[in-house]
Inverse folding.
């Protein structure tokens, strides 16, 4: 019954034209009637007329049709009948395959006729960057003059089957020069192609414009492929290129507090984003308490964000999938990048260990804010301050080509943050620090089983850990008083998965696979120590580790029938925890109907389940935020999302408009007044409550991706609400990051070949907050406690002022003999908008008497200049 409801709901969202075309738009058009009066009309002219007038697509060798002429005079003849009469007058035959009219020469074999061009062969291979040898993800391969073709998968592999004969293939990728190859296909063929970067010459730009896949052609809706080179031009805080901060400027994506790198997608919370690095889940993608993300753009090859219409191969989160792929390393020559900025530096090198067979990539980044701060705040009168504020990243990857069909990859990421300070003064030592970090590893094996079937097997490891330490020592007359509070939490994963890509025909792209992850959760170990001459107390609390196993199986097919493209899939997931087994069957459907060459309608429906939760305060960011699983008492989160949209190209501009509705169940939140440290950690399940959520709205995305001026304009109108029985008296209330309006303008202009100017402006409705006051009591019964006091008003009923700012940067490039040098100068919040970071309630005193309280907004980030020096060799 539930499946029937889902199907009916999905159909109700579709444009009427899409439903009709699913019956077969092509067959309907072939039954259309027309009047014909042709006298000795060349067949080539007839074909062109039918393609333009009736949108019938032909596949043929021009040499076969060159000298053929047609004479027909008919009234009210159907197109189907017309095709028959046309080819009766020629030495050619035709056959309709996948809604394409295939024309071929007749060849008599006894009493039968056989079509040489009807015999199909398969072309397959890899597309790579000519200079770096990196695989190109999502590159296009198609027959010239048609839209018959395919795209490369996540590993640069492509395959498609076409009738034999002479033809021209075009290999293209945005930003690269096309590779045009003439072939005479008489048998299966492997063809590896490398593409070079596009030139600035006008004719090359025009060629690339013809080759790129326009937004209305793409089958997947609610998805952005974010070019890494574009990320590097977007001005951000301190000049640090940042994947997640750049995503915040896309429609449907909201940022957290000012300056943070968190993303909130279509009303979801941070834990509802599945962030993958080389296929491995990343649990904390933030450095420096959220100011930067952990992703070093010099080590990244591709970034794909999916915020709806999820393909069946993805699961485990409700709101988005951020699929980040690391570079693989250069197989031919050594190269590298070096960048020196105001607060950090980074370096990346890659090259061959064995030429054209084995390569290695190494990348490192570290801040030196702690070194600068030590010089600024080292001594403060009688108090000496030793700050600890730094992070580092290490990325590494090895690839090895065993042979033409087998490749293996080993990749890893290691990162760590330390945030805090030690205060030393006569007789007193104090230390407050927080340390957290990720360790990620992936071992991958690509196997080209045959020219139509591709397999990828991956083993994964992920370890995320947090440690916070607070200590105090007071020495008086050789007597000492010591207080120590030490807290640890984390999650460790071991997993494996296998994925298959099968491309039987150009009209079908089938994917299926299965995976399993073993999770080990540490909800928290907290140790408190108090020692004096009279007291020696050591109190430790340890929440039991929770072990769970998550499994998934999926299958999906992207098929094309005439002007209708559909992605139909099914995702099954199961979760074993505490003798409980949760399971779900999640249907997925994505549709694209090409109404004309420049206009398409899109629709999608998906259901998602999530078995993991991030317990985080909406009001304050603590390093004690922790990951916990669904348990026998806490059900998995679930959601369904429906979206419809329209996409069109208008000259160099691409426009996409989408509307969506998302419903959520069993979302988790702390109860009012509770935080993780408020009471005994063993009872964390007693401090949370489950409820429902909803988000709906519309998004507009206008983009220009070619020419000297490029960029986009994005706008989101949305509503996001939550409802919990134990919060706000059970009444619905706005989610913390519910913003009615979000707008962004991102532009880049090439002044000339050496100077580039980039700027972005953003605007957002103020955040919804509860007017509150916090009291922090330290070492109360040897345990940290945080108490929350509501000062009246409904939950999140107060809106802070809107936020907006302008960031810009300018880069100066110069090609030296052995390297390219780039200076980048930028300004964050260049007109010094005092955007609210938090609000406080302040007492109003008249004549020494408290007469009331007023609300005061506090800003954090002023104008922040940045400068960096970059070398590429």
């Amino acid at each position: 019954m539930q499946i029937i409801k889902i199907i009916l709901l999905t159909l109700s969202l579709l444009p009427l034209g899409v439903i009709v075309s699913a019956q077969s738009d092509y067959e309907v058009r072939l039954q259309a009637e027309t009047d014909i009066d042709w006298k000795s009309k060349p067949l080539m002219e007839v074909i062109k007329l039918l393609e333009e007038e009736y949108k019938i697509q032909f596949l043929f060798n021009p040499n076969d049709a060159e000298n053929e002429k047609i004479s027909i005079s008919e009234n009210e003849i159907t197109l189907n009948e017309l095709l028959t009469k046309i080819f009766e007058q020629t030495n050619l035959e035709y056959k309709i395959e996948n809604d394409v009219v295939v024309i071929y020469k007749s060849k008599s074999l006894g009493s039968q006729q056989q079509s040489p061009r009807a015999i199909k062969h398969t072309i397959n291979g890899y597309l790579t960057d000519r200079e770096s040898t990196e695989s190109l993800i999502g590159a296009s391969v198609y027959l010239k003059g048609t839209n018959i073709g395919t795209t490369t998968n996540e590993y640069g592999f492509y395959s498609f089957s076409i009738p034999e004969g002479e033809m021209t293939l075009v290999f293209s990728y945005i930003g690269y020069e096309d590779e045009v190859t003439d072939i005479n296909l008489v048998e299966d063929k492997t063809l590896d192609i490398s593409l070079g970067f596009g030139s600035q010459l006008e004719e090359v730009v025009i060629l690339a414009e013809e080759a790129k896949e326009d937004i209305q052609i793409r089958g997947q809706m609610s998805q952005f492929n974010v070019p890494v080179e574009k990320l590097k031009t977007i001005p951000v805080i301190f000049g640090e290129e940042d994947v997640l901060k750049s995503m915040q400027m896309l429609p449907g994506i909201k940022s957290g507090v000012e300056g943070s790198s968190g993303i909130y997608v279509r009303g979801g919370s941070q834990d509802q984003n599945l962030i993958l690095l080389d296929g491995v889940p990343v649990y904390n993608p933030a450095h420096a308490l959220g100011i930067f993300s952990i992703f070093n753009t010099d080590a990244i090859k591709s970034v794909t964000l999916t915020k709806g219409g999820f393909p069946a191969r993805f699961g485990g989160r409700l709101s988005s999938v951020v699929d980040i792929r690391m570079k693989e390393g250069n197989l031919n020559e050594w190269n590298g990048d070096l960048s020196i900025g105001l607060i950090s530096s980074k370096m990346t090198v890659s090259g061959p260990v064995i030429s054209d067979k084995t390569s290695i990539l190494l990348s490192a980044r570290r801040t030196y804010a702690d070194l600068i701060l030590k010089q600024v705040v080292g001594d403060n009168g009688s108090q000496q301050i030793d700050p600890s504020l730094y992070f580092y990243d290490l990325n590494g990857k090895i690839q090895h080509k065993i042979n033409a069909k087998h490749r293996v990859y080993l990749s890893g990421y290691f990162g760590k943050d330390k945030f805090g300070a030690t205060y030393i003064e006569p007789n007193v030592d104090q230390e407050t620090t927080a340390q957290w970090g990720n360790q990620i590893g992936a071992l991958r094996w690509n196997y080209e089983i045959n020219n139509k079937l591709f397999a990828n097997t991956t083993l994964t490891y992920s370890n995320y850990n947090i440690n916070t330490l607070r200590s105090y020592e007071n020495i008086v007359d050789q007597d000492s008083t010591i207080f120590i509070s030490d807290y640890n939490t984390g999650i460790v994963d071991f997993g494996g998965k296998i994925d298959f890509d099968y491309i039987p025909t150009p009209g079908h792209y089938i994917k299926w696979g299965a995976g399993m992850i073993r999770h080990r959760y540490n909800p928290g170990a907290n140790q408190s120590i108090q020692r004096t001459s009279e007291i020696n107390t050591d109190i430790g609390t340890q929440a039991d580790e929770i072990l769970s196993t998550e499994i998934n199986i999926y299958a999906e097919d992207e098929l094309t029938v005439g002007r209708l493209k559909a992605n139909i899939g099914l995702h099954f997931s199961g979760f074993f925890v505490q003798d409980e087994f949760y399971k779900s069957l999640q249907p997925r459907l994505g549709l694209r109907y090409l109404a004309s060459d420049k206009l398409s309608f899109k629709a999608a429906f998906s259901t998602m389940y999530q078995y993991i939760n991030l317990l985080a305060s909406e009001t304050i960011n603590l390093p004690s935020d922790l990951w916990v699983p669904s348990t026998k008492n806490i059900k998995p989160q679930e959601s369904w999302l429906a979206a419809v949209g329209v996409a069109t190209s208008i000259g160099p501009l691409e426009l996409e408009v989408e509307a969506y509705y998302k419903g959520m169940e069993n979302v988790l939140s702390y109860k009012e007044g509770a935080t993780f440290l408020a009471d005994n950690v063993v009872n964390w399940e007693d401090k949370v409550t489950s409820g429902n959520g909803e988000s709906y709205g519309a998004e507009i995305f206008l983009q220009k991706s070619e020419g000297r001026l490029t960029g986009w304009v994005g706008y989101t109108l949305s509503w996001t609400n939550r409802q919990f029985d134990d919060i706000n008296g059970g009444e619905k209330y706005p989610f913390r990051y519910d913003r009615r309006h979000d707008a962004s303008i991102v532009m880049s202009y090439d002044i000339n070949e050496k100077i580039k100017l980039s700027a972005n402006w953003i605007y957002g409705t103020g955040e919804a907050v509860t007017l509150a006051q916090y009291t922090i009591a330290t070492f109360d019964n040897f345990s940290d406690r945080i108490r929350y006091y509501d000062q009246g008003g409904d939950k999140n009923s107060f809106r802070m002022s809107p936020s907006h700012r302008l960031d810009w940067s300018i880069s100066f490039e110069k090609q030296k003999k052995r390297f390219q040098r780039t200076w980048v100068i930028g300004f964050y919040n260049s007109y010094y908008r005092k955007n609210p970071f938090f609000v406080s309630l302040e007492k109003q005193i008249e004549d020494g008497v408290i007469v009331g309280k007023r609300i005061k907004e506090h800003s954090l980030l002023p104008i922040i200049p940045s400068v960096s020096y970059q070398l590429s060799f």
